[in-house]
Each structure stands twice: as structure tokens, then as C-alpha cells.
Write a structure and sequence with these properties.
Blueprint: H1 3-6, E1 21-23, H2 28-38, E2 42-46, E3 52-57, H3 58-66, H4 77-80, E4 87-89, H5 94-104, E5 108-112, E6 118-123, H6 124-131, H7 135-144, H8 148-167, H9 172-194, E7 206-210, H10 212-216, E8 227-231, H11 237-257, E9 274-276, H12 277-289, H13 293-302, E10 306-310, H14 312-328, H15 330-341, E11 365-366, H16 367-385, H17 393-402, H18 408-435, E12 442-443, H19 450-473
Parallel strand pairs: 1-2, 4-5, 8-9
Antiparallel strand pairs: 2-3, 5-6, 7-8, 7-10, 11-12
Length: 481
């Protein structure tokens, strides 16, 4: 998309939705403290009914308080704010925003919906950043960052970049690669910042591993932490203390810059996910010997491991152990396949797509449970059966075709279905992000047009057929217990 066409994008996709407000009667000093704590440059001032009346900016503080030598503790927001709030509608273009700012000689405007209710705000700097928004600029910004706070800002900008590129028509597979690249670079830079001083030698005899979708480089906007730490068997007690301390520091810093913690606790700061090479090898042997649902999940997470930073040789040794044990234990792989087939595609009579009947997601479809999980995990299990560990789903499919495990038609169908489900998932997440809603893996099938509903149905049928192939390949009907 050219820089010229940027100006004709709708403001609704780029304004800040999470408005932070204050009361007209609040003391200016209290409002200023809130601005500092929230790291914002303006506050919307509301009356007792919650209606926006004016806006207090850092410019107001400079020109009306500091320059006048007034005591902010004796002034109310109403005495300092600018009123009324100059605004544009959600459907106005960014060009309209710039025109409004120029006409009124202001640096920010409010955004109102069809009912003339204030729903957001957009700054002049937001549009300037949008003009300069590119993966290259963000990568340079990451490389030049000197503080964790800067990485936090950049992490937020990466999400806006994904929104921008998604709405510009960039293919889903390219977006997924970009998300993974930016996340990798952010984490790598964060590690470099944390290694200054006490932890300068960190990584010499340890490695920070990313697991799951991050390990496969298949992340979307809804992503949390899945990681682990591995260290050499001969580390000293002092080195082990540093590794533990660094793990806590790193995970807390990732949370600080905006990467949510794993709800299941799969993070290197937890003792379970931080072990020596031999301890990890023993753990993997134990999971295979006792293939419970939890152990299968743990093993599966490690089947996507990738060293983000540190001693790659440790991962290489552990990877060889996982592959060897997988090839020796076909029954365990069959258990993994059986676990995949528990996620039956939600197809009802005559191919009708079944949605959730009640609760928070009534009428919606969880795309991860409906098909994405079955495809990624099923392909992973087949890949392990031929001694392949690592890589994304597409790469594994090509290897399975080369080895004669899957036909070219099967690979084409699975690949197309996986990317359709991922496309629908990412598009919905982008819409949730823009609207300020919680990002999830759910969509409303009824909101799709007839063509997309048909494609979704075909994709779920491919998932169903693939699970049938897994059952036959691993002879699951012979599996007991």
C-alpha cells in the first residue's frame, strides 16, 4: 500500500479505543499523576453523568499551569482543559483527521460513533507512525532499543503493523512469518538487555527454548508464552543459581513488554520447565512410559522446541533424544494420534457446522479446537514417525509427501485447509483487536458470506478425512485403554 493511500484509510481502525478519563472536579495535580502513571499525554474530562466535556493535554499543563506559575493542587481539571472535544466520525478518513487537526491547530481529536458517542481518540503522532510503519522500521527500532520500556512500545506497534498489513491484503502465511520474526527479535533483544552486568555469560552453558506455535513459527495475534530452559549437566551451583534468577527475570520482562504468561504455567521460571539435559531426557522417557493426556501434551510441546538464544548444542542433543525415543515407541505415537482424534470436527447432519450452544461463545466456533489443533498435531505426529522434528506445518507436509506418507492431493488439501482456518482466525483476531475486544480463537460462522461458509465446511471435512487417515495409519482400532 502506497503512502498516499494510507490517508484514505478509515480512522476507526487506528484510533485508541481504551479511553482513560477523569472528572471535571478532579484536581489537576491528581490528573497529571494519572497521566504519568498511564504513560499518556491527555485525559478526557467527563461530567457527573460520564459524558465527555473536554480534554486536558500535556500542552494545557505547560501553557495554562506551569507557564502561568499556578499551583496544580489548587486547580480543577475544568479550569485547565480544552472544550469541547473536537472530533471526527469512525468512518472519516485519516486525511479528514489531519485536516481537522490543521484547521483547529490541535494534535489530537476524538472519534465518535454513529450515535455521536465518544469511542476513541487519535493523535497526530499515530498517523506519522502509520506513514513510517514497516517491518524494516520496527526491526531497526528493536535493534536500537536500549530499555525494556522501548521494547514494550515496539511490541504494541507490531500488533498495529499486523492489523495494517492484514487490512492491506498481505497473505496470511506471510503475516504469520512476520509475527514470528518480530517476536523472535523482540525476545532476542530483551535477552541482550538483561545480560548486561551479572548475566553477561548467560547462554554459554544453557539455552532458552520456545515451544508450541512459537517453536513452529505459527503465531497469530493471540499468543502467550510457551518456553523452557535447558542447561548443561556440569554447571556449577553458582551458575545454576544465576540460570534460575535469569529465568525469572526474563519471563517477568516478557510479561512487562506485553507477552502474556502461559495460563498452564509452561514457562522457564517454573522449576518443571527448567532442567538439565539429562533431567529433560529422563522426563521425556517418563512421559513416553506413562502416556497420560498431560504427558502427551508435554511431549508434544517439546516436539516443537526451538532455541531462541543460548547454546544450540544442548537443544540438538535433546532433539536427537526425542526423535530416537519416538521412533522406538510407536505405541506412544499412536497415543498421540488418538489424542488428536479426540477433537472431532464440529460437523452435523448434512455437513452443517455446529457452533457452541451456550455460554460466552454461543453461536461461535473455536477454530483451534475445530481443526487447527488436529492438523498441526496430526502432521507433527506423522513427522515424528519418520524421524522429523521441528519446522512449521507446511514444511512437515512436504517432507511427508517426499517420504510417501501422504499423497500430493492430501498435502494440498491439508495445506489449503490449514491456511484457510488460520486466515479466518487471524482476520477475526484483527477485528477483535481493532474493536478493543478480547482476542480469541472464535468466529461467527453465520457472519461469513456463503462462499466462505462453503470453504469453511470443506476445510472441516478435510480435517475429518485427515483424522480418518491417522486412525488407519496408526491402527487406532487396535489400541487398548
Amino acid at each position: 500500500m502506497s503512502e498516499e493511500s494510507i490517508f484514505f484509510l478509515p480512522v476507526k481502525d487506528y484510533c485508541h479505543r481504551g479511553l482513560i478519563t477523569c472528572q471535571l472536579t478532579d484536581r489537576v495535580v491528581d490528573a497529571a499523576l494519572m497521566m504519568r502513571s498511564k504513560e499518556i499525554s491527555s485525559l478526557i474530562a467527563c461530567d457527573e453523568h460520564g459524558q465527555p466535556i473536554g480534554i486536558m493535554t500535556d500542552r494545557d499543563l505547560r501553557s495554562k499551569v506551569v507557564a502561568e506559575g499556578k499551583d496544580p493542587a489548587t486547580l480543577t481539571v475544568a479550569q485547565v482543559m480544552t472544550a469541547p472535544v473536537i472530533s471526527v466520525t469512525e468512518h472519516d478518513s485519516l486525511f479528514d483527521v489531519l485536516y481537522c487537526m490543521s484547521r483547529h491547530r490541535i494534535h489530537r481529536v476524538g472519534v465518535v460513533d454513529q450515535h455521536n458517542t465518544l469511542v476513541g481518540i487519535i493523535n497526530e503522532s499515530d498517523i506519522i507512525r502509520l506513514q513510517n510503519r514497516s517491518p524494516q522500521r520496527l526491526l531497526r527500532a528493536i535493534d536500537e532499543a536500549g530499555k525494556i520500556a522501548e521494547l514494550k512500545t515496539i511490541h504494541g506497534e507490531t500488533q498495529q503493523l499486523v492489523v495494517f498489513l492484514s487490512r492491506s491484503g498481505v497473505p496470511t502465511n506471510q503475516l504469520i512469518r512476520l509475527i514470528s520474526l518480530l517476536n523472535d527479535q523482540l525476545s532476542d533483544k530483551l535477552v541482550k538487555l538483561l545480560k548486561r552486568g551479572r548475566f553477561a555469560e548467560m547462554g554459554r552453558n544453557s539455552a532458552f527454548l520456545v515451544l508450541g506455535s512459537e517453536g513452529r513459527r505459527e503465531q497469530t495475534l493471540k499468543t502467550d508464552q510457551d518456553n523452557a530452559m535447558i542447561y548443561a549437566d556440569d554447571v556449577t551451583a553458582e551458575e545454576l543459581t544465576d540460570i534460575e534468577a535469569f529465568s525469572h527475570l526474563l519471563i517477568d520482562a516478557l510479561i512487562e513488554i506485553g507477552v502474556p504468561e502461559c495460563p498452564g504455567g509452561i514457562m522457564a521460571r517454573n522449576d518443571f520447565w527448567r532442567r538439565s539435559l539429562s533431567q529433560w531426557q529422563d522426563a521425556i522417557d517418563g512421559w513416553i512410559a506413562s502416556p497420560s493426556g498431560k504427558n502427551i501434551l508435554n511431549f508434544s510441546m517439546f516436539s516443537d522446541m526451538r532455541t531462541l538464544c543460548g547454546n544450540v548444542a544442548l537443544e540438538r542433543d535433546l532433539r536427537a533424544h526425542v526423535i530416537r525415543r519416538a521412533e522406538e515407541n510407536t505405541i506412544f505415537l499412536a497415543r498421540m494420534a488418538a489424542n488428536v482424534c479426540r477433537f472431532v470436527p464440529p460437523l452435523g447432519w448434512f455437513g452443517r457446522i455446529k457452533t457452541e450452544s451456550g455460554g460466552k461463545y454461543a453461536g461461535q466456533l473455536d477454530l483451534k479446537k475445530a481443526g487447527i489443533f488436529a492438523l498441526t498435531e496430526g502432521v507433527k505426529t506423522l513427522a515424528l514417525s519418520i524421524g522429523v522434528l521441528g519446522g512449521n506445518t507446511h514444511d512437515k507436509l512436504l517432507l511427508l509427501q517426499d517420504r510417501g506418507v501422504l499423497s500430493q492431493q492430501q498435502v494440498n488439501d491439508i495445506d489449503a485447509s490449514f491456511y484457510l482456518l488460520t486466515f479466518l482466525r487471524l482476520r477475526s483476531q484483527v477485528a477483535d483487536h481493532v474493536a478493543g475486544r478480547e482476542i480469541s480463537n472464535h468466529i461467527f460462522p453465520a457472519a461469513l458470506d456463503r462462499v466462505e461458509q462453503g470453504r469453511l465446511k470443506l476445510a472441516l471435512e478435510v480435517v475429518d478425512s485427515f483424522e480418518g487417515m491417522l486412525k488407519q495409519h496408526f491402527q487406532l482400532d487396535m489400541l487398548r485403554g
